[in-house]
Amino acid sequence: MFTMVLVTFSIVTSVCVLNVHHRSPSTHAMPPWVKVVFLQRLPRYLFMRRPEMHSARQRLRNQRRLKSETPSTDSSNLYKGSTYFVNTATARKYDPKLMENQDHAGSHQDVRLRTSAKFSPEVQEAIEGVSFIADHMRSEDSNESVIEDWKYVAMVVDRLFLWIFILVCVVGTIGLFLQPLFQNHTREVLGEREGERERQTQRQRDSVCKCVLARACILTLPPFIGCHGSEAEHRLYSELFANYNNIIRPVENLSDPVIIWFEVSLSQLVKVDEVNQIMETNLWLRHIWNDYKLKWDPDKYGGVQFIRVPSHKIWKPDIVLYNNAVGDFQVDDKTKAMLNYTGNITWMPPAIFKSSCKIDVTYFPFDYQNCTMKFGSWSYEKAEIDLVLVGSAMNLKDYWESGEWSIIKAAGYKHDIKYNCCEAVYPDITYSLYIRRLPLFYTINMIIPCLLISFLTVLVFYLPSDCGEKVTLCISVLLSLTVFLLVITETIPSTSLVIPLIGEYLLFTMIFVTLSIVITVFVLNVHYRTPRTHTMPRWVRAVFLNFLPKVMFMTRPTEEGEEGPIQKSKLPPHGAEVSHLNSEARCCQGDLPCQGGTCGCYQHQHIKYITVKSNLTQSSSSESVDALLSSSLISPEMREAIESVKYIAENMRLQNEAKETQDDWKYVAMVIDRIFLWVFVLVCILGTAGLFLQPLMVGDAV
C-alpha cells in the first residue's frame, strides 16, 4: 500500500513536471518568484550548476543589453568619421577597416540613422526586411530563452522530488520492516517476565504440595472409599441400561410430546463464502430433555447424582440443520451426555455447519448480510417432539471474534410450520445472524487503489498535449481498471440481480476514463490545427480566447508588439554633410578585359566608400546619394540579393502569422482541457461520495 501510494504520487508529480516542461511564452508567463526560487536558490541547495551560455547569440544579446544601458549620443556625432559603402558587384573580399567601422557602429538602428538619405524603393524594402529578420530572430531568441528557463525549472522540480522520494522511500521502508523486530524484542522481554512469574508460582505450588503430602501420610483413611464410588457408578450404569431401548421415545404416555430445550452457542464464524453463498460456523448445540426411564435414587448408589454416558446409548432427538449446504445433516454423536438422577439429560455436541446463506452484494464491500440457521426435528412432528427456545438469541459468551465479520445481533425465533408434504405441524427454531463485513481489507486492497486510479484520470487533462502521453495514460488507467474488475468478479457471486458497489464504482470510473479518452482525442485534434487546415471562427475566438479564460482564472501572457516599420531618420540641416561619390570602377590587374563597362574579374572588385566630411553642403550630399542609389548603379547580383531578402522577410512574416494562429489553437485546446479538468474533478468527487455514502446511510437505518 505504501509503495502504491508512492507510485501514484510519483505519477502526479511527473504530470506536473511535464506540464512545466512544455510551457512556452505564448501560454504562461514566468512569475518573478519562480525565477528566484527555482532558478537561483534551489539549484544551489540541490548542488545543480547551470552551464553559462557562450554562444554568439548570447554575446550579441549581452552587447545589446549593454548598449541599451548606455546613453545615446548626439546624432551629429554619429556621422563624423564614418563611412558608407555600396557594393557595385558581388563582393568576394572585404576591408578590415570597414568591418571595424561596422562593429563600432553597433546595431541596425545605427545603420538606419546613418543611411537616412534617399534610397530606391528596392533598397529601402530590403533594409526593412533585414530589420524584420533581425527583430524576428531576437524574438525567437527571447522565446527560446524563456522555454529553456521553464525546462530548467522542471528539471529542478524533478531533482527536488527525487531526493524527497528517496528519503521517504528509505525512511518508510526502514520504519515498516523494523516494527517486527521491536515487537519481537518486546515480546521476549515480556516472555522473560512471565516465565519468572511462572517459576515463582511453581515453586510455591511445590511447597504447598509437599505440605499436603506430609499431612496425608499422617492421616489414616480407609483404602476402599475410592473403589466404593467407582463400584456404585458401575452398578448404576448396569442397572439403568439393562433393559433400555434407545429407539423408543422416553414418554410414559404415548400422546405426550418430548419437550426439548434447545440452545445454540456460537463458538466461531469460520468464513462466509460469497461466491458459493455458504456460511461456515462452529456451534455448540445444547439439548435438554427428560427421560423417565433413567431416574435413580442417589442414596442407593453411594450419593452419585450425575453420570456421563455415551450418547449413542440413549435416545436422542434427531434435530438437524434444515438449510445445510453439505450432504451430512446429522450431528456427530461421539460426545457423551450427562444424566441427572431426576432423569434430565444434557447433551451438548460441537458441530461445524455449512449453511446456505443468500448473499446480497449490493453494498460490497460495505455490506450487511442476514444469514439464517434453521434447526428442527426431521422425523418427529410437534405432537411427538416440541422445541422450546432457551433465551431469545444465540449464546455469544464463548464467541471468538472474526477478522472479517462483525456480528450485530443473532436473534432466535420459534416457528410451527405445516409443509406441503405432510399434514402434521413441525416445529423449528431459527436463528438470524445479522453480520457486517469489516471493510478494512478491501478498502486497502481495492477501494484505495481504485480511488487513486480514478484520480489519475483527472490528471490527463493537466498533462500537456505536446508531451504526447495523454492517450497513453488514459489507456493505461483503463487497463488497470479492467484488471480490478476481473479480481472483483472472482470475489463476488455470479448474480445478475444486483451490481455490487465496488462494481458500480469501477463501471463509473471506466465510463469516466472512456469519456476522457474521447475528450483527449478531441483536444489533440484542436491542439494540432494549423491555418492551412482550419480557420478559427469568430465565436471560438470570442468564447475560448476572451470569455472562458477569465471564468477559469487563466491569464494568457501579453505578447510584446514587434517593432513597426523602420522610420527613416533625417539628417540634421547643419553640421554633417555627405561628400561626392567616387563611382569609378577600378578593374583588376591582369589580362581579363572589361565588357560592357563591367570588369570580368569580380573577385578583385573593390567596395566604394562614401566618406563623410563635415564641410560639405546638404545639397551636394543629396545629389551624391541620389546618384549613388539610382537604379543604374544597382547590379543584377545586388538586385537578386535584395529580392532574396524580401522573400526571406515575407516568409518569416507568414510564419509569424501562422505561428500566432497555431498558438491560438493551442490555447483553445488548453482552455478546453482546463474546463474538463474541473468538470471531471467535480464529477469524480460527487460520484465517489454518492456511491460510498450509501452503505453508511443503510448502516444508520439498521
TrEMBL record:
User: GO cellular component terms?
Assistant: postsynaptic membrane; protein-containing complex
Q: List where Basic residues composition bias occurs.
A: 56-65
The record's section on Pfam families has: Neur_chan_LBD, Neur_chan_memb
Localization annotation: Synaptic cell membrane
Q: Which InterPro entries match?
A: Neur_chan_lig-bd (IPR006202), Neur_chan_lig-bd_sf (IPR036734), Neur_channel (IPR006201), Neuro-gated_channel_TM_sf (IPR036719), Neuro_actylchol_rec (IPR038050), Neurotrans-gated_channel_TM (IPR006029), Neurotransmitter_ion_chnl_CS (IPR018000), Nicotinic_acetylcholine_rcpt (IPR002394)
Region Disordered: list its residue ranges.
56-76
Transmembrane stretches in the record are 160-178, 440-464, 471-493, 505-528, 675-697
MF term (GO), any: acetylcholine-gated monoatomic cation-selective channel activity
Q: May I ask which residue range the UniProt record assigns to the signal sequence?
A: 1-17
Q: Where is the Neurotransmitter-gated ion-channel transmembrane domain?
A: 1-177, 446-692
As its record notes, the protein acts as a catalyst of: K(+)(in) = K(+)(out); Ca(2+)(in) = Ca(2+)(out); Na(+)(in) = Na(+)(out)
Domain Neurotransmitter-gated ion-channel ligand-binding, residue spans: 233-438
What keywords are assigned to this protein? Answer: Cell membrane, Disulfide bond, Glycoprotein, Ion channel, Ion transport, Ligand-gated ion channel, Membrane, Receptor, Signal, Synapse, Transmembrane, Transmembrane helix, Transport
User: What's the protein's topology in the membrane?
Assistant: Multi-pass membrane protein
Record's Gene3D superfamilies?
Neurotransmitter-gated ion-channel ligand-binding domain, Neurotransmitter-gated ion-channel transmembrane domain
Similarity remark: Belongs to the ligand-gated ion channel (TC 1.A.9) family.
Name it. Answer: Neuronal acetylcholine receptor subunit alpha-3
Organism listed in the record: Phrynocephalus forsythii
Q: Which lineage do the record's taxonomy fields give for this organism?
A: Eukaryota, Metazoa, Chordata, Craniata, Vertebrata
